[in-house]
Write a sequence for this structure.
């Protein structure tokens, strides 16, 4: 063990900056595999092997010289992102860099952009954008309160994982972090159907959605970013007209901002209409309600307690438990 620690394992004592430094990225002699062609093509032979007694070798020395001289180290390949050498099917997925998280928080808090626009611009999923904004808000609140943060632990973990960097400029396109426009699987589409259609009928995605459910929207309206489909249509119809694409993008951003402002106004009006009674430990909020808001079946979304859910009726006596219709 000590022979390996003082030999090939010595490269892990001082990790290479900007690299995950997984065991699978080095060979048995402690040489970085992806740097062979850049440093010395003879690193496979005995001249480039690491000396087990001294813990030094041509491979690490060449990497240190390149890094100090400003020469970039080759980018990590898929084989370098395998933290477990015996499990070659697992690849470590990238995480958001600290700069990218700060950019997400800045765009929402300072520029007032919506989560949808930030997600489309930085190519990060909307749920992840919302989570980053909430966590950064709590982090800033803790800093103001003087609470200690686990910054050294977070920095150490981030150094061991691949990261998606922030775009160097707002005018440049961001590096995609993940797929942001995947179609969610709706519960109504899980059934296998056979629907006969006349040859003269124009059957499209809207028609297919109505077959599964009357209230189901077509695929282009159920994706997280339907505006990207419209922008792609504009770009295809007006190729080379970047001004039209930019104008349409600005219109979509204005529409999204108007919807966001309307939601904020409704929330502010609701907060102003509520009666608040505060004591040292609790804050009580009283609102005027209508008994008719629960609907005929007591399950309307505007009813009291709708956010907590309504218990199902399948175990009550007298309820029909057999299928009453054929899908």
């Amino acid at each position: 063990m000590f022979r390996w620690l003082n030999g090939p394992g010595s490269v892990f004592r001082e990790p290479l900056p900007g690299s995950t430094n997984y065991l699978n990225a080095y060979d048995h002699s402690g040489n970085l595999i992806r740097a062979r062609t850049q440093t010395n093509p003879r690193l496979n032979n005995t001249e480039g092997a690491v000396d087990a007694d001294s813990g030094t070798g041509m491979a690490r020395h060449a990497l240190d010289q390149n890094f100090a001289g400003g020469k970039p180290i080759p980018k990590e390949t898929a084989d370098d992102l395998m933290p477990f050498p015996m499990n070659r099917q697992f690849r470590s997925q990238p995480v958001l860099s600290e700069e990218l998280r700060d950019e997400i928080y800045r765009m929402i808090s300072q520029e007032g952009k919506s989560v949808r626009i930030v997600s489309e611009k930085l190519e990060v999923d909307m749920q992840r954008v919302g989570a980053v904004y909430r966590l950064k808000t709590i982090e800033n609140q803790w800093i103001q309160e003087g609470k200690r943060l686990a910054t050294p632990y977070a920095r150490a973990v981030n150094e061991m994982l691949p990261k998606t960097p922030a775009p160097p400029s707002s005018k440049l396109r961001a590096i995609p972090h993940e797929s942001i426009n995947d179609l969610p699987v709706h519960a109504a589409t899980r059934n296998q159907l056979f629907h006969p259609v006349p040859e003269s009928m124009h059957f499209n995605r809207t028609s297919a959605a109505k077959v599964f459910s009357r209230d189901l929207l077509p695929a282009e309206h159920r994706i997280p970013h339907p505006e990207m489909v419209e922008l792609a249509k504009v770009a295809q119809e007006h190729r080379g007209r970047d001004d039209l694409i930019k104008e349409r993008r600005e219109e979509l951003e204005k529409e999204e901002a108007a919807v966001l402002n309307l939601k904020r106004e409704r929330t502010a009006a609701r907060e102003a209409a509520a009666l608040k009674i505060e004591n040292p430990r609790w804050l009580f909020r009283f609102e005027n309600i209508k008994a008719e808001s629960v609907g005929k079946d007591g399950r309307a979304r505007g009813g009291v307690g709708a956010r907590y859910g309504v218990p199902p009726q399948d175990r009550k006596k007298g309820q029909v438990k057999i299928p009453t219709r054929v899908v």
User: Anything to note?
Assistant: Residues 227 and 252 are 7 Å apart (CA to CA). The beta strands are 95-96, 163-164, 275-278, 283-286. The two ends are 65 Å apart (CA to CA). Confidence is low (pLDDT under 50) at residues 40-59.
